Amino acid sequence: MSNSWEKLIVALDLEDKDKIIKVVEALSGRGVKFKIGSIAFTKFGPRFLSDIIKEKVDVFLDLKLYDIPNTMKRTASVIAQLGCWAFTVHLQAGEKALAAVKEEVVNVSKQRGCRLPLILGVTILTSSQSVDSDVDGLVGLADKVGIDGVIASARDARRIKSNYPDIKVVTPGIRNTGDDIGDQLRITTAQVAFEAGVDYIVVGRPIINEDNYLDAAKHLLEG
Ligand code: C5P
Questions:
Q1: What is the rounded distance in angstroms from the CA atom of residue 116 to the CA atom of residue 75?
Q2: Can you give the pLDDT at residue 184?
Q3: Which long-range contacts (CB under 8 A, 24 or more apart) does 133-139 make?
Q4: E strand or H helix at 89
Q5: 73 belongs to the catalytic site
Q6: For residue 114, what are the contacts with CB-CB under 8 A and spacing of at least 6?
Q7: In the predicted model, what is the mean pLDDT of residues 108-128?
Q8: For a substitution probing ligand 1, which of 202, 203, 205, 208 has the most ligand atoms within 8 Å of its CB?
Q9: Whole-structure pTM over 0.90, yes or no?
Q10: Quick count: other Cβ atoms within 10 Å of Cβ 133?
Q11: How far is the CA of 183 from the centre of ligand 1 (A)?
């Protein structure tokens, strides 16, 4: 499928800095995006994140903010100054917190001239069971407050896209056919996700646990 490389977000869930750098070096030339989550961010901090951004790669900071509105707003302000491509909030934080995050990010980007990051809302974690109405309610809220995209399973993507065509759908829980599913309950292949209308897939272990990251990514994208 054309363009798939740009639709791939590789989760750098690693505690080994050299390994993170090797993954980025192996894949950045393809236009892949990279996700720094709580593991790498807690260990290496914002300076490391900035170093990766300086290499002109798109970084998605996945800290899944979920707090009272004031704390979420102030954290979003700090994140907006880092120059990330995107960051995550939990949609379950509610309308007031989400609207405050959106307003803050837009203001900070305007005032400081930083890159306006996409705000991505977590619906229900793909390691949990969900019902359609829970997901749909959260996506409706995201749309109402101007959240740019949602993290959702491929199973939910087609429905979300038909109701809210402008909302980006980002899908983790991607595996090769026959892979060990690990702790992800709602898994799918990259092909099935793209066919369902998913904008970006997030892939961690099927790539970062392999010896050849480029071959593993190719295999995953080509099916
Ligand atoms: O290793 P694996 O491919 O399962 O990694 C999936 C990544 O996506 C992890 O970094 C995980 O934190 C993240 N994620 C997820 N489910 C969500 C949101 C994020 O698996 N709903």
A1: 15
A2: 66
A3: 135/160, 136/160, 136/163, 138/91, 138/92, 139/91, 139/163, 139/164, 139/167
A4: strand 86-90
A5: no
A6: 80, 81, 82, 83, 108
A7: 89
A8: 202
A9: yes
A10: 8
A11: 10
Expressed as residue numbers, the domain containing 106 is 4-222
Q: Which of 145, 220, 217, 141 is nearest to 176 (CA)?
A: 220
Structure tokens at 2: 């054309």
Q: Residue 131 belongs to a domain with what CATH number?
A: 3.20.20.70
Q: Which residue has the higher pLDDT, 55 or 61?
A: 61
Q: Which among 4, 49, 53 has a CA at the least distance from the CA of 217?
A: 4
Q: Which of 10, 63, 126 gets mutated to test ligand 1 (max ligand atoms within 8 A of its CB)?
A: 126
Q: Domain count of the chain? A: 1
**pLDDT band with cut points at 50, 70 and 90 for residue 187:** confident
Q: How many residues does the chain have?
A: 223
Q: Using alpha carbons, select from 178, 213, 92, 72 the residue that is nearest to residue 142.
A: 92
